[in-house]
Each structure stands twice: as C-alpha cells, then as structure tokens.
C-alpha cells in the first residue's frame, strides 16, 4: 500500500505543472519571447467590461531595476472594452520563473488606450472578446460560410461577364472566360506602379511663423528643438543631409561652424556628486504629429528643476538609432524630452532605449499615430504620463551642446540618463517603417567638459 501511494504521489507531481500551465494559451511567439493569455481568467466586471490575465514569457531573464533581481515573466491584469476596442492595465506582476513571484504593482492611473488593428493588443482583444463556441455558433458559422461561397461564385460570374464585355468593346475576339480572366490578371501584373510624389516635409525652430490649419491649436511656445522639424528642406541623407546643413540656409551656418554641437560620444566624464534632476511630470492630454523628420508628442503641465532653474516640458520626440553614444556604443533608439525656461534657455533630457519589453507609453503614442504627415492627432479621452519614460536610476551625464537639428542652436543643456529603458522589437519595427535612420552623426567634442553622476 505505501508503495502504491508513493507511485500516486509521483504521478500527481508529474502532471501538476501541466495542469497549472494548461490555462495559458499562446497568442504570439517570436524570437526571445512569447505572449500568452489565461482564457480561464476571462470574466465580466460590474460595468460589463472584460477582465483577463495576460503575460510575456522571456527566454532569458532580465534585471529588475527596482529590486536588482532578475525576472523572466511579466503578468498583467487588463480590462478590455470590447465595444470601444480599448484596454487598460490594472496590475502587473513580475516572476523570477514559473510560480516564483518577485514583486507586484497596482497601476494607480489606469489609462484607457485604443487598440489598433494588427497590433499585439488587437490579438489579445480578439481572444478576450471572442464568444465561447457552442452549437448555435457552429451552425451560424456554417451558414455564413455557405453564403460567402455562394457570393464568391456570383462575383466570379459577374467578373467574367464584365471582362468579356470589355473585350468586345475593344473589337477583340472573345476567348473563353478563363482565358479572358488570365489575360486581365496578366495585364494588371505588368502594369507599372503609380508614382508616388516626393513630398519633402517642412522643419523645427526656424524663424518664419509656422502655418496651422484653421481651428487647430498652435504648438506650445518655446519648444525650440521641436519647431526646427517643420520648415526647411533638410534631411538625414543625400545633398540635404547633415554634412550639408550649414550650406542650406544662412540661419543654419552654426551646424557647420559651431564648437558646441550635439550629439557627441560621451566618454571620460568627471565623476562627481551631481545635483539630482527634480522631475515634476504630470499626466496630461497630448497630441501626436509626424512632422516629416520624427514622431513628436506635445504635452503640457510638466517640468524639471535643476540648479535653481525650472524648465517647462514642451514636447518629446524620437531618433533611431540613438544620436548619443556612450563610450562609443549606440543604442537602438533615444527619446529627447525638450524643456524651456522663462529666460529662453533649453534643457534636453535624453532617455536611451534598448530592445526588451514593450513600453506602454510608447505604445500609447504609436496607437495614435496620424495617418498623414504634419497632421495632429489629439485623443479626446486619453492622457499620457511622461514619468513612465523615466528609469528608476536617474543618474545622468551632462554637458553643454546644441539642438541636433537645424538651425543647430548652441547653449543647450544636455542631461543624458545613464540607465536605458526598454522598447519592444515590434515597437522598434513600427518606427523603422516610418524612419529608417533619423540620427545626426556625432560631432567633434572640442575639449568640452562632461560630468557624470558617481
């Protein structure tokens, strides 16, 4: 009898992991990670919205900056609104491994984010909002398939009749319907593609006034770095590339002659006790624009304070790859947060981005990308918390430099945070489709002093 009990216990231990994991269903898998949903967790809350558990399982653990331990699984409790196609995260849990909890965090401000078709969130939404199959659903699906098949047949007949009519109109001999269809397909295949006009977008800190559509608010005053991207025909390659910026317009001469230009390769800094940057970032409404040189997000109500001076945050935007280098190394991307003080001085906080987990704030921006360049999208019921971009370790490098786009104005205080933040491979790919490369090369140092937190 004891031996039988031991065998039973061994059997239960063997099957328990499979039972524990059986509720997780793979929604997406790619190199290095997979995304899963626990279908057994799907339920309705008191407002009729769907609540479900999802998680990202990494092949290799990464270090958690808040605990200095490693985790491999990030689990999120999300609330989905199937009708409006939106979701918000209520809670996140970090696991060292299966069943080994590292820490949990409640999301204090659950921001409703729209779900865009084709994105990973769209796949999760479909799984959560998909009705459970039953006999009625199977019958309805069968009837729908029959109707689709019938409609497809009728459409094919109509196409054949139309093709024959066109052939007769051209006084051609009418061949068999199958041959007519083949000829039409061949004609479509060999037709040259329509030429897309080359539209050079305008630039960001030029002196001419910026044009706006009637009824649309103007960008925040004093955004400096932000406004350069909308008015001159400069680019990141070719005859209008960085090597030629200084010759494009007299106002851009500093791009070629300046001695305090950015970006630079940050190395050999003086390790000292730098004053901490006082971030006063607050959730606010936002608007997104693709200005032809980058994706830019305008916000209000946030600021930083340093050395007795306060700088208001006007906007942030992205570069790929990072413009800054640290000891010769570049990062996948960088986000520049552009601030301006009352006296007109500019301070830019740079947050380096490297491939890892999905970044919720960046996804919120990507979800609201405008369909046309130089058109603004202002989500009416959404806010954005720029503090989500900041790493836990806010030590930094600092030096005096310039704007990294024409007119390359100098006297800019640069604050480059040392700890990178994550951005997913999917999010990187989205920006790469818009801008393959929009980073100015590193500039000469000219013996500038660089300081870094010790």
Radius of gyration: 28 Å
User: Remind me, CATH topology of the largest domain?
Assistant: Carbonic Anhydrase II
What global shape is seen?
Answer: globular
| Number of structural domains | 3
Total number of strands: 23
Structure commentary:
The longest helix is centred in the middle third of the chain and has 35 residues, at 135-169. With 454 residues, this protein is an alpha+beta fold. It is 23% helix and 33% strand. The chain contains 8 helices and 23 strands. The protein has 3 domains: 16-129, Beta Barrel (Lipocalin); 143-171; 222-453, Alpha carbonic anhydrase (Carbonic Anhydrase II, Roll), CATH 3.10.200.10. The chain starts with a helix and ends with a strand. InterPro entries: Adhesin_E-like, Alpha_CA_prokaryot-like, CA_dom, CA_dom_sf, Carbonic_anhydrase_a-class.
């Amino acid at each position: 009898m004891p031996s039988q009990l031991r065998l039973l216990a061994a059997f239960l231990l063997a099957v328990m992991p499979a039972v524990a994991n059986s509720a997780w269903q793979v929604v997406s898998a790619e190199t290095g990670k997979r995304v899963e949903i626990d279908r057994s967790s799907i339920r309705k809350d008191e407002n009729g919205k769907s609540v479900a558990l999802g998680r990202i399982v990494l092949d290799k653990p990464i270090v958690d900056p808040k605990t200095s331990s490693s985790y491999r699984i990030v689990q999120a409790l999300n609330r989905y609104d199937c009708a409006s196609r939106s979701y918000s995260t209520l809670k996140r849990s970090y696991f060292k491994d299966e069943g080994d909890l590292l820490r949990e965090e409640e999301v204090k401000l659950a921001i409703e984010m729209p779900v865009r078709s084709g994105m990973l969130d769209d796949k999760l939404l479909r799984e959560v909002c998909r009705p459970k199959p039953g006999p009625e659903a199977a019958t309805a699906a069968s009837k729908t398939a029959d109707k689709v098949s019938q409609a497809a047949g009728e459409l094919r007949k109509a196409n054949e009749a139309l093709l024959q009519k066109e052939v007769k109109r051209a006084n051609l001999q009418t061949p068999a319907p199958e041959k007519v269809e083949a000829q039409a397909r061949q004609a479509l295949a060999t037709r040259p593609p329509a030429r897309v006009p080359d539209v050079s977008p305008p630039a960001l800190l030029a002196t001419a006034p910026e044009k706006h559509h009637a009824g649309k608010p103007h960008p925040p005053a004093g955004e400096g770095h932000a406004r350069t991207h909308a008015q001159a025909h400069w680019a990141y390659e070719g005859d209008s590339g960085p090597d030629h910026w200084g010759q494009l317009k007299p106002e851009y001469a500093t791009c070629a002659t300046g001695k305090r230009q950015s970006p630079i390769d940050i190395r050999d800094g003086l390790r000292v006790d730098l004053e901490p940057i006082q971030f006063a970032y607050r959730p606010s409404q936002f608007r997104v624009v693709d200005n032809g040189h980058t994706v830019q997000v305008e916000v209000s109500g946030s600021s930083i304070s340093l050395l007795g001076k306060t700088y208001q945050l006007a906007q942030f935007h992205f570069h790929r790859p990072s413009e800054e280098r640290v000891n010769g190394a570049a990062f996948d991307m960088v986000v520049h947060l552009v601030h301006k003080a009352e006296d007109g001085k500019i301070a830019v906080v740079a947050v380096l981005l490297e491939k890892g987990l999905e970044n919720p704030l960046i996804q919120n921006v990507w979800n609201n990308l405008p369909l046309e360049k130089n058109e603004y999208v202002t989500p009416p019921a959404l806010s954005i918390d720029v503090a989500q971009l900041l790493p836990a370790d806010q030590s930094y490098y600092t030096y005096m430099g310039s704007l990294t786009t024409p007119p390359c104005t100098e006297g800019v205080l640069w604050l480059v945070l040392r700890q990178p933040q994550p951005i997913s491979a999917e999010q990187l790919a989205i920006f790469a489709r818009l801008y393959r490369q929009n980073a100015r090369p590193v500039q000469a140092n000219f013996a500038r002093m660089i300081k870094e937190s010790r």
